[in-house]
Structure formats: C-alpha cells, structure tokens
Fold these 3 entries.
Entry 1:
Amino acid sequence: MEGQETFPPAADATRSLPLGASYPVQGQIFQGPLHLLVHLAERQDVDLRRIHVGQLVDEYLAVLRSQTELPLTEVGAFLALAGRLVRLKAEWDPQRLLPTSEDGQALLADLRQLQAIHALAERLAGRLRPLTTRPPWRPKPPLSERSRRRPEELVEAYRRLRRRVGPRPARLPTRLRHPPLAQLSAALEERLRKEGRFVLSLEELWPGERGATFLAALFLAQAGRAALQQEAPFAAVTLTYRRPGGP
Amino acid sequence: MTPLLRRLEALLFAAGRPLPEHELAAALGVRLLDLPALLDQYRAQLTDRGFELSVSEAGVTLLPAVDLQETVARALRRMPDRLTAPVLEVLAVVARYQPVDRSTIERIRGVRSDRSLAVLEEEGLIEVAGRGEGPGRPVLWRTTPEFLLRFGLKSLAELDSLWPDEA
C-alpha cells in the first residue's frame, strides 16, 4: 500500500502476529482492554510514538474475535475499546503516522502512560525487599477490614461501648410548645366558620409560634375546608372558608 | 565500638520501627547536624554483618542485609506473594501520581482496582491522604514510609529515576 511505503512502520512493527491467533486473555494476564493493547504493541516492539494504527487495530480485533470465553462483565469494556479503535482506523490518514483526531491522540497518550506505569512497576518489583523492620511494627488493619465486621461482633462492640460509657440516658420527654396541630386547625376552622373570610395573622393561634398557625392553615387547605390566597410573596395571606361538600 | 555507637545500636534494635532523625538525635543527646557523621561511623562497622543501616525519609532503622532478605523471609514465612503484578501496577500509579483517588487509578489502568488498593493498604504500603474535592469527595491515597523501606528508596524523589525517560 502506498501509505505503508511512504511511512514504513517502526523497525519490527512489520513482524505481525497471525490474524486469529489465540491469546490468553485472562484476568491474571490482561486485566483490561488497555493492557491487551499495550501488550500487543510491546509484542510487536512498536514504539507508541511511531505507532502503526491500522495493524494494531487489526490485531486487537483478531484477538477479540478469537476469545470466546471472556466473562460477560468484561466483554463490554473490550468491545467499547474495539469500537473506539475501529473509528480511529477509519479516521486515520495513511499519509500521517500518528492519528490526528483528538480521541486518537488521547488514546495514544493513555497507552503511553500505562506503558510507563508498567515500566515503573517492573523496576519497583526488582527492588522489592521481602522484609523491612522487625515485629511488632505492623500495619493497621485496612478500613475495608474494619467495616467488614459480622453483626454479632458489632453488637458485642456496642455492648463494650455501653459498659465503658455507662447506661443509655433515659429519653427526654418531648414537650410541645403549642397544642397539637389538629386542635389548632379546629380553632382556626371555628373562626372561619363564623367570619367566612379573614386575613391570617401568623401569630393568630399561638403567640410566638408563627409556624404552628401557618401549618394549621395548610392543614385546613389540604382538608378542603379553606382556600389560601396571597397576592404577592410575603404579602398577607387571606383565608376563605369552604363549606364541606360546597364548591 | 564507642559508648555512643552502642547506644545508637541499642536504640535502633529496640525501636522495631524507623526512627525519625530528630527523635534519634534527641534520644542520643547529639545535635541533628552531627547525626549523619555518627550514622556513617556506625555503618562503617556493619560490614559483613547480617543487617544493614537504612536511612530514608521513613527514618533510620536496621534491616536484614539485602542478600539475606529472601532467606530470612522464607524462614519467617513472610514472602511478599501478595504483591502480584497488578497490585504493583496500582502501587506504581499511586507512587507516581499521589495523592490520587481510585477513579483516577482506574482511568489510567482501564480496570477496577479496589482489590489491589485493599491489598496495598493491608500491606501498609499506602494510606489515606485525605479526601478530594470532586463529586463524592473521594478518598485520596498516598504511599507510606513502609513503601520507601520495602523498595529501598531514600525518598519519593528517587522515583523519578525509575520513571522511563521516554514517557
């Protein structure tokens, strides 16, 4: 192809894997689609700065086609990347070595980043020492462990806490500052029945408890015994009586 | 060995954890400025011994000599078999981009990483560094002083020398 002659791929990129070759795509080896793609690129010795997009896409799709035992939960991620790659290949300009689209460049940046992380992890593995300091220096149990307690352990922990801090205090009696809402609504309805209509004063029913009067009015409106009207925000609220069964 | 060096050795032996340099200097009654020379004197006496002096940002401690690490670990059944390649990969991401949240790690790797993070936390190699500002205020992770000891690093700045040049 003309494109390939004009822009030959990097040194060993032509040494491609046979299409349809079988690869062990398993959790232990390839944790995800990006890992597989990086592996394919590394296996070809492809420099990700001089990537041969078309070939890499073909190989990724070939590997994916050959996999029949991918768990369903993983297939979506692999297919999503496949779709991205196919679009990338379709947009790829053979006169240019690297993809020019924003998504293509973002994907390449992701691959380069993961490749560098692989290299760092390998170098760290080479320096890993099995031992550090002697006991009793132990790491704290992880948060996830601490939150994975069984119910009986939680109950026992609660009992220990109770023993430590003493018995649970008796519940404080609840004291309403105003009569119950039903009683306030009945008083409001009584006045409405007599007067038919009046402007509501928010301290009508219980001095200092504006909320109680307003709630009682809402309660009446909800029960269909009164209509509330307000001309503007913060303006006075007018209550009109509605006879039971009336309009 | 001078009385001061003997005291230094006893302190490091008994501490069982890396001692910060200021703490060590105070315990020995020496100036912080004089501590490096003292540690050098002690290190010079440790040739052909079964342990070595480790001085890093984690602190000053005694560790089994590098060539004996595997032998001792096998005898004590403390092989780091939990640090598999994926776990080390997550550790590399945390080390490089710390403090970092789980979603960033998973975006870089393209796969879920919660189990690897749990293993690393259990091993004492990472710890919670606070919470991010993003949606849900995600937990941020960073490496611990134990990380420096386990990988023989003097400081986090040394990680730059392990990062590939071309990246």
Entry 2:
Amino acid sequence: MTKLNLNPPREVRERWDRRLALFAVATIALAWLVGALINGKPQPDCRTVLPGAIQCRVSGEIYEGVITNSDNTETVLGWATVSEAPGYAGPVKVMVGVNPAGEVIGIKVLEHTETPSFFDKVSSEGFFDQFIGMQANSIFALGEDLDGITRATFTSRAVSDAVREASYLLADEKTSLTVSREPQPIKFGLPETILLLLYGAGFVAHRGGFRYKAIVRWAMLITGMVVLGFVYNLPFTIAHINSLLIGFWPDWHSDLYWYLLVGGIFFVVTVDNKNPYCQWFCPFGAAQECLGAIGGAKVYNPGQYRYLLKNVQRFLAWSAIILGVLFRNPSFSSYEIFGALFSFNAAAVQWVVLIIILLLSLFVRRPWCQFLCPIDPITDLIHSSRRWITEALRKWQKKANPVTES
Amino acid sequence: MAEESKPGNGILKIIALPLIAICILLLLAYQVEQVSSVISPEATPTPISAYSIGGGSGISVEEEDHASTPTPNVSGLPPG
C-alpha cells in the first residue's frame, strides 16, 4: 500500500498550486454569475411606508400610495421610493414614504448585510423613530438633525444617507419643497491620517539599508494595533475583498479609509510585489507578536503537514469568498476573529478560536496569520499570478524573438 | 526574525497541531452555520432583517389585511 505523500516535492506543489489557483479563480467567477442570478429582488410593497394606503402604483422609481373613496375617486396618501447607501458590511437599502405635505411618514429597511448585533442596536435605540415627521428636504445628518447611535455609526450613517437620497428625490419630484444639496464633505480624520503615515513609514522602512527597520516596524505594529484595532476596529478583512468583488464600493467622501486601505494594499502587492500590511501594521498580527514577545514564540514548522495546512487555509479563504459572492453579502462568511478582540463582538465559536489563538501566540509566532488568516492565501495568489504571468511573457518573448534572446 | 523550531518538535508538536486543527474545525463549523442561517432563516435568527416604521406591518401583499388601517407603529423588528 502506497503511503499518502502530504508534502510533495516543490515541482509537484508548484504544478498543483497553479491548478488550484485556476480552479479558485474560475469557481469565484462562476459564483459571481450565479449570485447575480439568484439575488434578483421582488418589488417592495410601498404600503409598508405609507400608512393607510390600499394600492400602490409604480411610475419609474416612485411608488404612489392611494386609497379609493366611497364615490370611487382616489386620494393620494403619499409617495415612496427606494434608495441605498453603503453601511459597514455592504449596502443598506431603505424605502421611504412621504405625504403630500412633504413629511416623512414611514421608513423601512428592505435589505442590509450589517452585523446583526449592530443593526439591532440601531433599531432598538429608537434611531428610526427620529425620521418620522421630518420634512423631506431636511439635512438628515448625524450630529445635526439626527442623533447617531454610538458604536453603530456606520449603520446609522448608511440609513440616514439612504433616507436623505430617497426623501430628496420625492421632495423634488412630488412636493413643492426646495432641496438644497450641499456638496458632501470628504471625511478625513485620525484613522485616515494614521493609515497614510503607516504606509509612508513602511515605504521608508522597506528600503534596503535602513538602520532602524526593526524599531520602525514595532512602532508601526503597536500604532496599528492601538489605533486601527482597539480604538477604531478597522482591520483589513475578507469582507473588504468580497465588497470589492461584488461591487459594494462605499462612497469615497464618507469612507475614504476603505479606499486607502484596500487600494493601498492592492497597489503595493501588485506593483511592488510586497505586502505592506500583514507584517507591518495588521492590528491582529501585532497583538499576536506582542504575546509572542512575552512568551518567546518561535515560527512553528508543522513538518509533513505544512502543505496540507496551507491548503486548508486556502480552502477557508476560498469558501469565504465563494459564499460572500454567491449570497451577495460581503461579511457573513467573514470568519475572522478580529471583532472579538477589538470590539468584543463575535459569535461564541469566534471567542473560542480567539482564546486558543491568543494562548498559542505565546509559543508560536503568529499562528493565526500562518495557518488561518484568509488574507495570506490571497496575497500569495497575487504574488504567484504575477510571477506566472511574468514567466509566461518571458517565454512568449523568447519564442517570438529567438535571435535576440540567444 | 524569530527562531524557527525544528519540524514538529517538543511541546509544539503536542500542543500546536491539535489546537490549530480545532480552530480549523470551529471556523468551518461557523461558516456552515452562517450558510444554514441564510438558507433556512426560520432555523436561526436571520442576519438580513428588516425594520419598518410608520407604515404597515411589512408583511407581503398577499398576507396583509386590507381592511385594517395600519397604524404608525414599530413593526418588523429583527429577532433577538
């Protein structure tokens, strides 16, 4: 009986890696297409936001809610429309109803992919009640005419943005209200500033011969852990990749951080072939390294299981992307445990994994990154694809110009 | 750079591999649970919940009682 070889030679691994990469890309593309087909949505019912309306008529983007009187005439009770705005984990779709006086009389969140606990917090703390009775041309801005919900600002901002857009459309089209659309300010605060500084510090420290590389790297790790982790809970996750693939790109005015994080990482990985994030300022990587420094952690070599574990890690990443793309929900397949550590918000399973990983970090260098993190296989795939494309181009050039090459 | 241990050596051999395997199984179970919550929403609280205020019940056109006048109340609250 032949013994199963779990750690094949390099050439065999290389061949399998290419096949697996092609399989992964093809199946993700297929899931994307299937997801587009199965996620078609039925028309919403406007009566949910227009109290008393018996019938809904649709004209373009606007629904008209009417009631039939005893003399068979109709009275228009109001109008409704649907709009969406990016939340923390994808778009939040809202239907808004406005009466002929231009007052908001009903709102309904039709779809969202926010973390249930955050969404529940927004709905249970009376955030939605604030909209009722507001004029359709109000500012609908958190901190001005609306109170945001602490620790659920992304969700509450998404709802207010969507309500604003829908209300303004109705105010313009169906009421005599004047809407003044002020240009949306670009949100550039501490997380964005810190992120740019981290990229800058990483660029300097990456340069060959830089004397203070180790010190700068530790400073970056601790800054990342404290600011991007514990203070803002904004690490890079598989949900970012899924959002990118699905097309849930947030508004850059209100979420510049998303573009700086995702764009910056992909730019450096593809152009410079280096990973500016994982080893430099990943908040969870930093937390593991801090524990590793306390416990004297070493890089763990799982010997014959190394290739098997690598492929299991790839499978976890692949399945998270497939599910996110298939169900058009960037975050629900995101199995990372960062939320448990940085915002104390996670499923029971994630808490258990977090405890194991933190304990293991005392003895093993970055166990999460080495064996479980979905980001590592993705950056690997980009690096490998880059190498394969370069090799293929070189071979093609060699074939095309055999004289000049020889 | 941290020192690398010999393949599967010492205490790490006994502790690390089983713990990593447990984590993998737990994370796979988490993904399966997430998928089942979407496929059969009645089995577990749905993550895609809807909230409505000001209008009707949020139930489907077929189910809604046309005779009753919806009152501006909070309805369709997400479970949990």
Entry 3:
Amino acid sequence: MASIAHLEEEHEEHGHAPVNGVMHQYEDIDQQNESYAVGMWSFLVTEIMFFGALFLLYTFYRWRNPESWFFASEELNVTMGGVNTLILLISSFTMVLGVHYTQLKKRTAVLKCLGMTIACAFAFLVIKYFEYKEKFAHHLVPGPHFQWNGEGDKNIAQVFYSMYFTMTGLHAIHVIIGILLIGGLAIFHFKGKPYVTEDYMPTEMIALYWHFVDLVWIFLFPLYYLIPK
Amino acid sequence: MNMASHGHTKYKPGEIAWGAEHHILPIGVYVKVILALAVLMGLTIWAATWHIGDFKLGSYTVHGTMINNVIAMTIAVIKASLVVLFFMHVKFSTNLTKFWAVIGFVWLSLMSFILADYHSRPLDTSVAEPWSSDPGSATPRDVGGPTSSDLGRHGVNVRPRQ
C-alpha cells in the first residue's frame, strides 16, 4: 500500500509538532480552522438554547400580561440601557479589529484593541451596577421587600423583575467571563506566545464568544427597555 | 515529499480567513457594519416612541403596540444578522460552519411553537378536573396558577400544596 507507506513517511518527517501551524491530524490549515469554528459554534448553539428558554418564558408572560408588563418596564432607565447597548456594540467592533490585527500580526494594535474591549466591558458592568443599585433602592428586587406603587398587577411586576434580573444577570455573568477570557488572551499576546500571535484562530474564537454576548444584549435591550405603551 | 500538494505552503496561518475565502477583510467593512448597527440602535429607540393606533384587519383588531413589537424585533434580527455575518465572519466561512451557526436559531424557532400550545388551549376551567385531583393528567393552563387567595405573606406567588 503505497499510500500508507507515504503516510508513515510523512508521520516520521513531521512527528507531532505542527507544521506551518497545522497540527498533524489535519489535512491543511483550512480543515484545522474549520474544526475550530465548528467546535466553537456548537458551544454557542448550547448557549442559544440556554438563553432561548428564558426568552420563551419572557414571551409567554408578556403575552399573557401585556399591560402590567408595560407598566413594570417603565421603571427601567432607557438612557442607561441605550448607552450600554452602544458600549457593547463598540466593544464588538474593537474585538473584531483585534482579530483583524492578529491576522496582520500587528501585536501592539492587537493589545490596544483587546484593551479597549475590556474597558468597554467594564464600563458596561459599572452602568449595570448603578442600574441594579437603583432597583434595590426602589424595592424592585423580587422577594419579601418587593414594593410596587405603579399601575398594573403587583405580582406581574414582580415576575417582570424576576425575569429582568435573571436574564440581565446571566448576561452580566457572561460579560465577566468575557473579561477574563479577553484578559487572558491579551496576556498571551503581550508575552508574544506563538499559539496566539502566529495563529489567529484562538483570538477569533474568543471574539465569537464576545459577539455572542453582544447578540444576547441586542435582543434584551428592546425587550426590556423599549416596551411600547 | 511535495508539501505544496498538501496545501501546507499555499497559505500561512495569518493570511487565511475562515476557510472558504482566502483574504483578510478590510477594516472599512467593519466600520460600515458598526455604523449601521449604531444607526439601527437609534432607529429602534425612536420607533419605540411611535404611537400606532389600533386598526381592523378584516374581523381581527390589530393592536398598534403589536406593530411596534414587530418593528423592534425586525430591527433586532437585522442587527443580529449583521453581527453574525460580518463580525462573526459566518458570511465568509465554510458550509459546515454556516450550518452550525444557523442550527441554533432553527432550534429557537422550533421551540417557539410551544407558544402555539398556550395559544390554542381553552382557558375554560370547566374543561378538565383540577390537576390536584389527578396529578397524572394534563392541566388546563390556568388551573393551579396563582389566585388572590394563593398569595403568601409577602405577596409572592405561592400555590398551596394539596
């Protein structure tokens, strides 16, 4: 079998070390990159299902109680939500530029982009903190101390705030994980580790995660802050 | 051995974009996308303030707020598509990656069919016995839900155990 002999010969030549950035189990760099992308997307599919169930629950409650839902949402701060949306969109932009400069192997530019992305993520969390603080001050946190003086059903308002804290809280946890991932990536870039500077895919994968976090917020913002009367 | 025949030396890792197309996107594309996203965000905030009156469509009354919701969700889907196609590079990726990227959203749309169940079930409590009398039976949707007598000490929804 000439082909097997050929493979063995190749194996001896290459060993297990990546050749030109390609690990020995892959045909070429395209196949390697595709397997990276498919792996990351299959993880993102589980994330879509995770958040999807909550969005379904949201749809159900809002469908059943459209008016109380609107009155409950009036307490949310549209300006803060809007600024946060813009911040996340900008952070997605700086993240994709980080991938772009990784492809071009411009390390300083990569570090600047990742730094800006992390700064945006922190800004998002700071604004979120002030929003949550306001809700705590106004007794809008579900539980024994929940108070509702507005129009609409008190219990539905409580359901609204339960969902608000669950979904935005889960999203905020994703933002925190994103900061850790991007921070770790930035450290590897700073140290000039070849597996992130020579191969752009690790940066691309973390960027995919970060864009997903942005995607969730793109839906959360109109669903919680922009409910029409 | 001839390395070129295996494609190893055709492209260096940094020069390759997402398998299907071998180029790096110019920054201009990303700038256009972020500008479009910002404009769409402004549009969705503005559109939420539109007061659309209710109107009749045949025998069915369409609520103005429903139109607001459709506009808001359409804009959100357009924004999401821009992020997925350009920022997440799905537009330039292989078919297998595209498949995986789409399948999650297909799942979401399938899951939303659960709502059809809630929509189509009768709300008349007389159609079935309350669940408590036969725990194994299907429950009409408004049976077992909170009523004013079910509210606990703090007004939290508590269904009494039976």
